[in-house]
Amino acid sequence: MYGVLGWAMEIGFTAVSQQLDGTGDRRLQGHTYLWMLPLYGMSAALFEPIHGRVRRRRAPVRGAAYASGFIAAEYASGWALRRVTGVCPWDYTGRSRFVVDGVTRLDYAPLWALVGLGMERIERALSRVRVSEDQRVDGPVTRRSIRQRVRRRGIAATAD
Known about the structure:
Blueprint: H1 2-20, H2 36-54, H3 59-85, E1 99-100, E2 104-105, H4 109-127, H5 143-152
Antiparallel strand pairs: 1-2
Helix pairs in contact: 1-2, 2-3, 3-4
């Protein structure tokens, strides 16, 4: 879930930022990289423990914690990709005076803080979703399959 949300966020961000810097067109075409799906997917494993520790703090403190975590993760993953493949897909070299080794931008900290605060809402919504054995559907739902499920649960079925 986090991987797909990350992809969508990045595509939207690149489309809008290209418009703002004059390199985009009216199609609002954004882009991302295949590498980003697992990287954004891993953000769940990093975000949720941080969220648990800062949950009761004020929004600016939580945002700073999220921004620091995202920047550290972006640096580590960019560095690792460069070591493994020889290139970092999102090379920031020359784009800002706040670029660190071409793999992260410190001037994106406010954006990463907002992303983290937004992810709190997503995490809250996802934590309410429960899928139990009763909700799982095996095969097509027919009158017969419903009756069988009702009988398995020991609930008296009414006549059709």
